[in-house]
Amino acid sequence: WTREPSLEAIHQRRGVSANVAWWIERELPATGPLVTLWNIVTDQRLIASAKSNRAGVPVTCFTECPPSQWSDLRTFQSHLGRWDFEPYGLAVSRAVLETRGARPAIYGTDESWCDLRDHDRPFFQKSYDRQQRGRSWQHEREWRLIGDLDLRLLSSLQLVILVASAAEAQWLQQWSRWPVISLNRSQGLG
To answer: In the Cβ-directed half-sphere of 41, how many Cα atoms lie within 13 Å?
Structure first.
């Protein structure tokens, strides 16, 4: 991987639970973003979701924000019960995503939603959320891909796994055919 992860589109990961018995037997946490990455690496697929998509179309989301900005953007989303911008993700070549139809989110208002054509609606993201004290979503610089992303088709030049620490990178690398790098090391923090 010769490029900085910041030059790619990055799929951020948050925690989910996994096969608890398997993880406990190995004295590892059974939830969290590292577990989620392990699931993605072993399944070799990013699964789309329609959960936060107004159009009801399953999409896979990415950010253009470089990892060096994540700590400044990290906030707890109380309405979702989770943190944004945790130091875990998958950096995917933007060219790969574009060939599969990914494109930037369309930020707008309720009124602009009504003016969108049906094929643009899965890419819509409300600019501001009044329920979240006027929080702007545009800082996420989101890209969306309709549907899942099959990682089996991606080479080690097209995908890099990002984790918080060198120990996590070393552990996850045994499961991954793609490079796994520590953000602390890549940003000169560790």
So the answer is: 28
